[in-house]
Automatic annotation (TrEMBL):
InterPro entries reported for this sequence: EmrE-like, TMEM42
Natural source organism: Sphaeramia orbicularis (orbiculate cardinalfish)
Chaperone as UniProt keyword: no
Keywords linked to the UniProt accession: Membrane, Transmembrane, Transmembrane helix
Gene3D superfamilies associated with the record: 1.10.3730.20
Domain of life: Eukaryota
The protein's name: Transmembrane protein 42-like
SUPFAM superfamilies, A to Z: Multidrug resistance efflux transporter EmrE (SSF103481)
Segments passing through the bilayer: 71-90, 129-145
Length: 162
């Protein structure tokens, strides 16, 4: 059986933690799209602005009046799928990281940053300066945590009896 070095295990653990945070933010995005206001209907209408020839269906209703309902159901299903994938990646991160704190902080930082990017791209959200100070402190703590070397405790079998 091939043995993986400790640094390679920490890199893969950190990678899994980053993916877990991203998938958590994606799940939150899907929840907001499926349960929130008429975001999907607005996105549909803005996407169909140039396609006026098939925008109207019978009875004066637009395509987006009925299309946003299946899209909401799809986003609801994606919410559960993204959560399942997020927990899978997080459990792999816990297994491969040297400490659970490293996996948790990395996942949290990844989730915050991904949520900020999704909020800006999808909804035009802006964050206050205090939010950026908080995320900066979180990232500094993350860098300190990743920069420290893990201390190993001797195993019971390694101790010599006097």
């Amino acid at each position: 059986m091939k043995r993986v070095s400790a640094s390679a295990g920490m890199i893969s653990g950190s990678f899994y933690a980053l993916l877990a945070g991203f998938m958590g933010a994606t799940a939150s995005l899907c929840a907001k799209l499926s349960l929130g206001a008429d975001y999907l209907k607005e996105i549909c209408e803005s996407g169909l602005k140039n396609g006026d020839d098939w925008r109207e269906t019978g009875g004066g209703k637009s395509t987006c009046d009925w299309l946003h309902l299946p899209l909401r159901l799809l986003c609801g299903a994606l919410l559960f799928a993204c959560n399942a994938v997020m927990w899978t990646f997080f459990s792999k991160a816990l297994r491969h990281c040297s400490s659970s704190a490293r996996a948790t902080v990395t996942t949290t930082a990844s989730n915050f940053i991904s949520s900020a990017v999704f909020g800006r791209l999808m909804f035009g959200e802006l964050h206050a300066a205090l939010w950026w100070v908080g995320i900066s402190l979180t990232l500094c703590g993350l860098l300190l945590l990743h920069g420290s070397t893990p201390q190993t405790q001797p195993l019971e079998g390694d101790k010599k009896d006097n």
